[in-house]
Amino acid sequence: MRIGMIGLGRMGAGMVRRLLQGGHECVAYDPKAEAVRAAAAYGARSARSLAELVRLLPAPRAVWIMVPAAIVDAVIAELRPLLAAGDVLVDGGNSNYHDDIRRAGELEAAGVHYLDVGTSGGVLGFEQGFCLMIGGEPSAVALLEPALATLAPGGRMPSAPVGNAATGPAAGRAASAAAAALGYLHCGPHGAGHFVKMIHNGIEYGLMAAYAEGLNILAHADAGLRTAAADAETAPLANPRFFEYRLDLAAIAELWRHGSIIASRLLDLTAAALAQDGKLTGFGGHVADSGEGRWTVEAAVETGVPAPVLSAALYARFESRGQAEFANKVLSAMRLGFGGHAEQSS
User: Fold this and answer.
1) CB 174 within 8 Å of CB 184
2) Angle at 108 between CA 106 and CA 114, to 5 degrees
3) Of 197, 244, 298, 343, which residue is the catalytic one?
4) Which long-range contacts (CB under 8 A, 24 or more apart) does 20-29 make?
C-alpha cells in the first residue's frame, strides 16, 4: 500500500525505511528539506508540502503523523481541509489519549477516520520492528493492517483462521493474540492505543529508575574504603568493612544480560553505555520527562489505583532537574534554626 509519513525524525525516518523494505510505497514530508532528501534516497517519494503529500496518495488515503504531541493539532488543522471521507489519519506519536478522543470526534464529522497508535522501538525499530498499540475503529485498522504488520517486529499479518471462521483483515485479526505475538495489537476504541502506550512509558520510568538506583548502590559499595568526616553532621558507617568493594559496573551490567531474570533491552542499553564510559562522564544527570509518566500517575490517582513505584520514578526525574533545590534549602534552614546545624559543603 502507499502511505504518507509526516515527520521524519529518528523514528519517522526509520518507519519509512521499514515500510519501503517491506514493499510498501511511502510519500514523505518534513519541514526540514534534508530529512526529505534522506528519505528519498531510500526510495520514498518526496513531498514539499502537506498538500502535495495528500495529492500523491490514492483514495482512501492513509496519512501517518510522527511529530511531537505539542504540534499534532496544528498539523491536523492544516491537513483536515485536504482530506476526504474515508481517509485515515494516524497519530503515531505520544499524544495524551484525551486528545485522541476529541480529535476522533472532530474528524468524524468529515468522514475521516482517526487512529491513535502508540509506537515503541526507538532508533532500533528499523531493524527490530516497532511495537504498535492501536486505538480506533476496526474498519480503519483493517485498512492499514498491511502497513502495521510490516512495521511490527513480526513483519507480517497473522495466518488466516481455518474452518468456518471469518478470514481477512476485516475480521478483526489485529485485535487477536496472534497479532499481539507479532508485535501489534488493536487495543480498543479511540484513545486506547495511546492509553496503553502511556502506561507502557510509565512502566518504563519505573524500570529505568530501578536499574539506576541499583547500580548507584553498587557504585557506592566502596564507602568503607573512603575516609568519612567525623562530625555531628555526618552519620557514620556502622561497619565500614561491609562496604569495601570496588566493583566493575560495566562488567556486572554485562553479566546480568546473560541468563539473569532482570535481563532486558533497557539493560542492554545500560551495559553498552557503561562499557563505553564506566563513569558516564558525558551525562549531567538531568533526566527529562515527556509527559507520559505524569499522565500515568494522573490516571492512577483518578482511578484510585496505587502506583508508588511509578510515582517515585517520576518525582526522581523532577528532582534530577533541580526541582527539589528550594525544598532542600528549606530543610537546611530549619536544621540550622532548631539545632544550629550548618550545611556541609558537598
Assistant:
1) yes
2) 90
3) 197
4) 20/44, 22/150, 22/151, 22/155, 23/150, 24/146, 24/147, 24/150, 25/1, 26/2, 27/2, 27/3, 27/53, 27/56, 27/57, 28/4, 28/53, 29/4, 29/5, 29/53
Q: Distance (Å, rounded) from C-alpha 344 to C-alpha 82?
A: 64
pTM exceeding 0.85: yes
pLDDT tens-digit readout, 39-76: 999 999 999 999 999 999 999 999 999 999 999 999 99
Residue 108 annotated among the catalytic residues of the structure: no
**Cβ 132 vs Cβ 192: under 8 Å:** no
- Rg of the chain taking only CA atoms, in angstroms: 25
Spatial contact of 113 and 140, defined as CB atoms under 8 Å apart: yes
Instruction: Determine which one of 25, 52, 106, 204 is catalytic.
Output: 204
Q: Which helix (H) or strand (E) holds 126?
A: helix 125-128
Cis peptide before 81 (omega within 30 of 0): no
Structure-block grid coordinates of residue 125: 525499530
How many distinct helices (H) and strands (E) make up the chain? 14, 8
Instruction: Report residue 168's pLDDT band, with 50, 70 and 90 as the boundaries.
Output: very low
Q: Do 169 and 193 touch, CB atoms closer than 8 A?
A: no
Active site residue 127: no
